[in-house]
Structures are given as structure tokens and as C-alpha cells.
Queue: 3 jobs
Job 1
Amino acid sequence: MTKKIVLAYSGGLDTSVAIPWLIDKGYEVIAVVLDVGQGGKDLEAIQKKGLQVGAVQSIVVDGKEEFADKYVAPVIKANALYEGAYPLVSALSRPLIIDKLVDIAHENGADAIAHGSTGKGNDQVRFEAAIHALDPDLAIEAPIRDFHWSREEEIDYAKDHNVPVPIGKQSPYSIDANLWGRANEAGILEDPWNVASDDAWGMTVAPEEAPDEATLLDLTFEKGLPVALNGEKMTLANLIVKLNKIAGENGIGRIDKIENRLVGIKSREVYEAPAAAVIMAAHKDLEDLTLERDVAHYKPLLEQKVTDLIYNALWITPLFDALQAFIDHTQAVVNGTVKMKLYKGQAVAIARQSEENSLYNKNLATYTAADSFDQVAAGGFIKLWSLPSMVFEQVNHVHSVEKK
């Protein structure tokens, strides 16, 4: 009996040559493309190519709304930026891809799942950790990693097995994109001293070429998530698409970073995340207005842990669920509107309001005659605040100045 395998298929060289290789190994291949808003690709053509090179089924799954609502949303609430910069573009789509692939494997009685990751990257871990968590009985095939294929060997194998290889100049880059942004590596980017050339960017204009007049826009949040742009309500996925265009035209969201990969090597990555840059800045600004002081100071500690869990393929863990429950609870009060100024690569919050949850009290903050703060109470508060250290010094004289 022929075994069935579900392949995470992108239509690129790696996953295209994987199809005849898996067939040679005795599998019937079900190729699955997940649409997470990668844009710029003819998914129908990719679907047909999967059948052309030997897959018994080639499926395109529309996952854009689910990707936004279940995977991007937690990142927004957590202000999640890996190593302070990377908005977890690729890391977010992997658990969703595997979730869909496992479902399709179960529906079709498949025995295994395959992916086209190499042995140097993070994706192999993200794919396989999710497979092990969701169904450890499924076998895993990773031909590109396990057989150490070079690019030249892949092309030769493709020609021998009638797999179409693009003619002409191929992009030197390895690019992964979705709604939340675009990740780019390889080519001249492998030397960190090389300046990223113009062709390395695909979603943004150079900041110096952006309009000379600033763009102002209002982002409205409910429970920590953007729900309206300039007063127009829309789904999170559609809002991200629209904001990617507006922010990209203003040169916003470019990131050029040396990052520490999960597997332990350093990698030079070039990212573009226009919508993410604007949304994250606005969200944090609204939190500053609505979160109580101790919550605002403690939440970043957990945010860093959540970010590391996502990056390190630990999305499906009890700890992630527990931390996310805490973060979700904090977001109940993050409601309001932030006015953002977009100008030549910068996204800055310039005004904000929250009618129901603002903790800013003008009468307490003002230095005018309208001041309602009890100045007299401050002296007593300071005595009580410093009481523990005062008593300690009286007993131990660690820092006390000797009286003359």
C-alpha cells in the first residue's frame, strides 16, 4: 500500500524538487500552500505546478484571517519584538502551517509530513516541534536538510525530473513573506559589512525617497487590538494590508539586524514590517495611558519570555498559554485611539485618548491653579516610603555620615 505524505509547499525550488524525491521514496504527495498574505505570488499557478511535478493533490488554504486573529494578535498584545527588533514575521506562520498540514494529513490518512527547510535555519525546529506536539505518530521528511543538497545539485535533480526551473537571472535572496512582514537573507546580505542594496527591499521605499509631507492617521484599539483605521472599522487582516501600503510608502518598517538564531549561529537578516512598526508603536503608547503602573512595569518581563517562546518554536506549550492568559487579562483596559505621524521612516505617536480607561488625570498632573494634588500629603508619604531604609541606617550606619 502506497504511503501518503503532506508537503508544506511554496512552489520554490526546494519544495518543488522535494515532490519527485518523495515520490521516488514511495509516497503519494499532497502539496499544500497556505496563503498567509505573502503577496506577489500567483497561488493558482503554484497549485498547478504542484500537480505538474507529480503531486496527487495540490491544495491552497486561505489562512489570512486566521493568521491575523490567532497568531499576529497575540504578538501585538505582547509588544513582541525578538531581541528588541524582529517582529517575528516567519516565526508566526509556522505553527499555523503545521496546524493545517496535520489536519489535512488526518483527513487524507497520510503517514507523514514533509518540509523544505535546511539544517541551519529556525524553521526546521518550528515545523517539527509543532508536528511532534500535535501528532507525534506522524513521520517527518526533510530532504533538503537530510541530504545536504547544494543549489547546483537541486537544479540538476530538477532538470532530471522535469521540474521547471526559472530561466534567466534568479534572485540571490531567500525571501519569506506574510501579512506581518517580509524576511530576506542570503546573497550579498551574508556579509554583514555589505550595505543592503535597493533590490533587497520589497515593501518599503527608502526613507529619503518618502514624501516630504507627513502622513497622519488614527488607530483605534479595542482590548489591545487595532479595529479601525481613521475611523473605518475593518478586520485585523485587512487593516494590516492597508497599513502596510501606507506605512511602506513612508519608508517605515525597515530592519537590518544581526540576530541569534535558535540553532546557535548568528545571522544577518533584513526585514520589512511597515504595518507592524506603526501598530506596535501605537499599542505601546496606548498601554502607557491605560495600564496601572505596576502592571506596566511588570508586563515587559513577561513580554520578553513570550517573544522568546515564539521565536524558539515553543508556541504549543503550557507556559506560553499561561503567559498569554496574563497578557490577555491586561488588555481589557487597552481601549482608545492613537494619532500616529508617519514621516520618512519614522512612526511616532503624537496624541492619544481613551474615554473609558485613561489613567491620566489632568487635575492631578497640572502645575496650574487647577492642581488638585494634595501637596501636604507628600511629606508624610515620603517619611513612610523611606522608613525601612531609615531604620536600617539607624541600626547599622552603613551609609550614615558621622555627625560633627
Note: The mean pLDDT is 89.
Job 2
Amino acid sequence: MKRALPPLNALRAFEATGRLGSIKEAAEELHVTHGAVSQQIRLLEEWLGAALFERQHRRVVLTPAARAYLEEIGPSFDQISRATAKYGLVKPVARTLRVNALATFTLRWLVPRLGMFRDAHPGIDVKVETSNEPLESLEENWDVIIRGGPDTFYGYVMRPFLSEDRIPVCSPALLQRKPLAVPDDLRAHTLLHTSSLPRLWPDWLAKARVSLLEPTASLTFDHFYLTLQAALDGVGVAMGPTALVADDLAAGRLVTPFAGPPLPSRSYCTYVPEAKFQDELVALFCAWLEREGARRQKGAA
């Protein structure tokens, strides 16, 4: 019996677009133009006699019928790929994992560890973009988004992987010049602030039961990583996130002048689109993040 098969190039364009949630990303994966993918999708829609996507600004969303269709045909593409690789008929191609993460977290925690992930998984290319935008404001279709939490967002699976507190930190050289025996000694120092986190010092001072503290000077930066760099350079005292300054504390580049009190903070979490939660690469990367987070916290204990 003759098979009722739609145009296979059009089907391939549909599968890639539906899986990635983006015509742009599908075009990159298939090594064709954005217009070529759009044309193939229109061809398939004409062949099927039904719309497959709803266009929403720069993203495309599957219709309910198209989602069900993709769930049926998607495993067939995976099976063809596995069979082809099994019989040595294609050279393995590195897959790209797209990650969107907070800037300071990326600079101070993720980047120093990415080499270990690449060494363990050389077949995976990781594309990292930094952003402090709220998750719901992101327009691109990401495999993994790293933000604070835990929060709940419709259509995403959330998993915490790294917790932290905030504590005052400074360079050893600064501490030698101006000792800090008790929190009230901060009056003789410069306090370093971040404009997006204005409550860090007031909240910590309140918890440390220090009232009406007037430091010698205050400096405010627009990015947290600049605030931490100023602390490393001996400019002043910053409120350091324990997860992101752990390496500096271990190496002696920063010190904690007081035993406490720690100021509780939100955890770092992965937010994965539900459509990508079962993806092998996504699961692999998220599991690695959780292992690294647990290892850091065990070392800090």
C-alpha cells in the first residue's frame, strides 16, 4: 500500500522548528536560511491543510494538533539518527546547548567550571549568553535558563542546584591596613554597593544589630561583578555571595572579617522548557550543575 508521506524536507523543517521553538534556530541547525525553513513549513501546512504554528513576536508556538503530530513523528527522527550513527554512516556532529545565565554567576562560577564539563563531554558545544532579564521577558528559545529561585513559571521545570548566603568580604591587604574586629569597625571603611541590590548592606547591618552606621565612604556599581572586583582590588568591603566568592576565599584573595551573621539569599536554579526537559543533553548539563553545586557546598561545610 502506498504510504501517505508529506514532503520530507518540509517535515524535517517542521520537526526542527517544533523541537527548538524557533525558526531561526531550526535554520541554524539545518544549515539553511530562515526563509527556506518558513517556506518548507508553509508547504507542509498546505499539504496537511492545517496551520501548524502560531506566530508570537519572535517566537513560534505549536498549535495543539501540531504538538500532538510532533510527539508522534519526533521519535521517528531520533530512531533514524540512531540507526544511521549505529552503522557508521555519518560522522558524529557536536550538538550545541544554549544556556542563558546571570552575568555575575556566569563570570564567577560557571566559566571557571565549564572547561571540566567540556573535557567530560567533548561532543557538546555550550553557547552561553548572559542576561539579568526576568525569565518571562526572554524572547529567545533557550535550552537551560539559570536564575534565582525557587520560582514557578508556566511551561518550565525548575530545579535548584546551588544555595548561598551573603557575607562581608574584603581583600587581606585592606584588612591589614584597617582591621575589622567587630561590625561597628565598618565606620572606618568604604562600603561597596550594587545598584540593583540596594538592600544588601542595610539588611546585613540590621541583622548584625548595627544601627546608624555611617561609613567613611560608599561606592556604588551597576554590576555585581564590578562590586566584587573592587573588593578584590582592596577598594572597600562588599557583601559577597558565598557561592561566587568561595574560590577567592579558598585561594586567599578575599577574606571574611566577621564570623557572621550570614544573610540568607535565593538559590540558583535551572529553568528548562517542558518541551526540552527530556532532552538528553539538557538533562546531562543540569545533572552536572547539581553535582558541582553539591560538591561546592560539601566543601564549604
Note: The domain at 8-86 is CATH 1.10.10.10 (Arc Repressor Mutant, subunit A).
Job 3
Amino acid sequence: MKYKEILLRNIESRPEQVRQDFSDEKIDSLAKSIAEVGQLQPIIVQKKDNHYLLIAGERRLRAVKKDKKEKIAAVILEEEISAEKFRQIQLIENLQRQDLNPLERAVSINKFMEANKLSKKDAAEKLGVARTTLTLWLNILEMKEKYQKEVLKEDSPVTLSHLSLAHGLASKSGDPSKANQLLDAVIKHNLSRKETQAVIDLFYRYLHLPVEEAVAAVLLKRERMKMKDYWDKGSKNNSHDSVRKLFRSFNNINDNLEEFMEVEGDLPEDEQEELLDEFLYLYQIMGILIPDLKEKSLEKMVNDIKIDSK
């Protein structure tokens, strides 16, 4: 292995380049940086007769060319490198620099594994990453193109963690459509990873509750938390406000119900009727306080909430 400056005109890019997406804007930015402070990291090339084959550093090579330079700093590998070794070096270099987008990374790792007949465990060891991390990266390949593109968008709520949760849901339920339903909800309602996990927990806790109903429950909780924050802030200025006291009472009931559902799950049959009577009484009182409730049946109110969450 040698280190020296070599002529740009003697460098040839190999066709099996790992990285495929080259942003002109980012290359321009890198070119300006190199022009200002110099090339901080050499490219890696393989000596081949009277020229060099590029192993790693395509972005740096393009940036230096934009800066109108004739030479570039390079680490030169003089021994013969197999196609598999070439891809391994490229992968490790790009993974360390985080130069690949999630899809490029997954495609390249998958090709590397197939070419070398490697398990996830073996591939993780050769690439120097945890097996759980490698699995997370590869999940994107099992998703529809629609969701793969979502991960690449800067303003999309979908992350690799969301894909991992959706993949797990599809595997555990044996129904790939569940993953699509979940990810569609993530996109539509901007669900965080925590909210997405809450949807999955509800799905399994209540005998495979429909995904859309689990999403509606999570969205309802989101809105309740917003209102809780609103009233909590307002109570600092007026702690004796009767409406705020009433709201806090309802909030305490909701918290207790959620805690019971998480711990116990089901209400004993002999207590269901008593609780239902209390709920109906509360519903009648609310109908007096809020006249609009009188115009809607309880069933219609529940259906309206489900429709609003879709």
C-alpha cells in the first residue's frame, strides 16, 4: 500500500460502483471545501498496468475535477483485488463515511452477501457493524417501492425504524397488507416511532384489532395530550378555574383507564355492568352541559371519530 498524488487523467472509475446517487449540489459543496482547506482524505485506487482503478472516493474525485486540479491524493493498492473484495472495501469505506442513502446501502450489502454466500451474522462481522443494525438496514428491500422512496425523502415521517416495525408486524401476523396499512397511516398522520409502536401494541393486545381502529385510538390520545398540555399551561395562571378543574378530573379518569387497560387488559364481567351504568350517567350529564351531544347517538359519535382519523 502506497500513498501519493496521482494524475486525474490516469484514474478510471469501475462500473460496479456502490454509490449511484451523486448530488451535484453536494459535490459543489465538497469542491469548495477542498479548494479552501485542501483534500483531507485520500481516495483509494488499485494499480492496474499504467493506470488506476478507483476503489473508493467517487465524490472526492468528482469534486477535485470540478476544482480544475490535475492531481489527487490517493492510497494505492498494488495487489490484485477480487470483485468481492472490491465491493467489501467500497462498502466499509462508504458505511464509515455514511455516504450511501438507505436504499443504496441495502442493495449493496445484499449484493455483497449474495456474491459471497454470507449470512447476516457473517456479513455484519466482515463489514464491522452489529447484526441488528444490518437487519434494520436490509428491511427496506422487503418493502414496496412507494415506502422505499418515502425513506429517502427529507420531509417524510417514514424512517428505517418505521419500516422495521412494519416488517415485524407483517412477519408476526402473517399478513403483508398489515405493513402497508401501518405505513400508510404513518405517512398520512405523521406518526412518530413511539406512536407507531403503540398502534402495534393495541393491535396485538385486543385480539388483532383492525389497524385503522388502533390508529384512531392513538390519534385520539395524541389530541388528548395536546389538550392536556393546553389546560395545564392555562392552570398556572388561573388554578381556580372550574372548567380547568373539570378537565383535569376527566384527564385523571382517562389516565386511570389507560393504566388499567395496560396492566389488566379486561374488566371482570361482574363489574362491567356497574361501569357501564356510570358511563351512561356521565354521558347524560355531558349531554346537558354540551347540547350538541343530544343531537348525536353514542354510536354515531364513535363512528365520526373513526372517520375523522382516516
Note: The domain at 2-81 is CATH 3.90.1530.10 (Conserved hypothetical protein from pyrococcus furiosus pfu- 392566-001, ParB domain).
